[in-house]
Amino acid sequence: MRDEITAATRVVVKVGSSSLTTNGRADLDRIAALVDALADWRASGREVVLVSSGAIAAGISPLAMKRRPRNLADQQAAAAVGQGILIQHYAQHFATRDLTVGQVLLTVGDITGQQSYRNALRTLERLLHFGVVPIVNENDTVATDEIRFGDNDRLAALTAHLVHADALVLLSDTDAVYTAHPSDPEARRISEVRDAVADLAGIDTSRGGTSVGTGGMQTKIDAARMATSAGIPALVTSTQLAREALAGEDVGTFFHRTGKRRPARLMWLAHASKARGVLTLDQGAVRALQQRGASLLAAGITAVSGHFQAHDPVELRDPQGRVIGRGLVAYDSDRLPELIGRSTGDLDPQLRRSIVHRDVMVLRPPEARVAPEPAER
Ligand SMILES: Nc1ncnc2c1ncn2[C@@H]1O[C@H](COP(=O)(O)OP(=O)(O)O)[C@@H](O)[C@H]1O
Ligand SMILES: N[C@@H](CCC(=O)OP(=O)(O)O)C(=O)O
């Protein structure tokens, strides 16, 4: 038995496009089966927030498209049609179990900006208070590529953090994370993950998922890591096993929590924000940040690139160019170059504050550091 799941009173359940649609249409039988499993969970006095993909996939056939569109405008048109159809079916099926649903469409900005974060939280809390099942999706019809999550796995992890969920359950068409693509005869189920780096070392997630899904298994692993690093256990399994998963049975891949709840702004900074620039640090500054938990001072910066404004997210790199973390920078990119490398004592007192304060900095664990991406061609 998985005690963290059976003891949970509030779960976020994310379901992928491939579990809700067949041939570019909403699949009523599959939606009904999922709704039944969730309604039973609700009937035991517990709460669920459903993060449902499938808007684009459910709009394919009604718009006489042949496959999932690749360009943004067609995806948005499909999502506008498909989202309505999905919600209609959810509303009908949940109503047969005396449950009301509420649609909540979110953009990255809604869930990461301080004010809008509170708005989103207030709405979800209110819906749960009224006994409603909130159904969340990305607001695909207005989100541009620039500001889009694109996959709902990470949106679900941020939602789980937002609503202080006790567990995150990621449902798709595969019953677990395997050591290789499930069609590979050598592939073995991974039943538990305590340390995502060590336990998942060498597994192959490179083969894409379904023709309607977006991220494949990798974005589910990323989402599970986001949740567990913020104190929320996560389970990856198939939609058919939703009932067993919620009952705490040994199905799927269970990710144990690895960290504690962290402030929302740091969740956003670590996982959802786009860096606007890069600060390269000397070795002494890297040590000060990693070993002493220091703030970043001007003296430790050797190079600045990108265009950013004060309070934008920037990447922090070591002298070898590996990303060691991220932070919110205190100065604009126009101003910063004149300060770099200068010791605090040499600076005008007004400019003596740290360039990236410790409280708005997230560092990567040493094994997760990555080499710089190749320059754009
Ligand atoms: N190592 C792996 N273990 C399990 N599934 C994998 C693995 N590598 C790739 N996959 C694929 O990931 C897919 C699930 O991702 P995706 O299609 O994005 O699902 P969804 O649309 O439900 O979010 C599975 O269909 C499976 O083929
Ligand atoms: N917001 C998109 C979600 C796309 C997506 O993440 O799909 P999936 O990989 O199936 O979870 C939609 O509803 O179509």
Automatic annotation (TrEMBL):
Its main location: cytoplasm. Keywords: Amino-acid biosynthesis, ATP-binding, Cytoplasm, Kinase, Nucleotide-binding, Proline biosynthesis, Transferase. Pfam families: AA_kinase, PUA. It is found in: Cytoplasm. Its EC number is 2.7.2.11. Catalyzes the transfer of a phosphate group to glutamate to form L-glutamate 5-phosphate. This is Glutamate 5-kinase. It comes from Parenemella sanctibonifatiensis. The gene is proB.
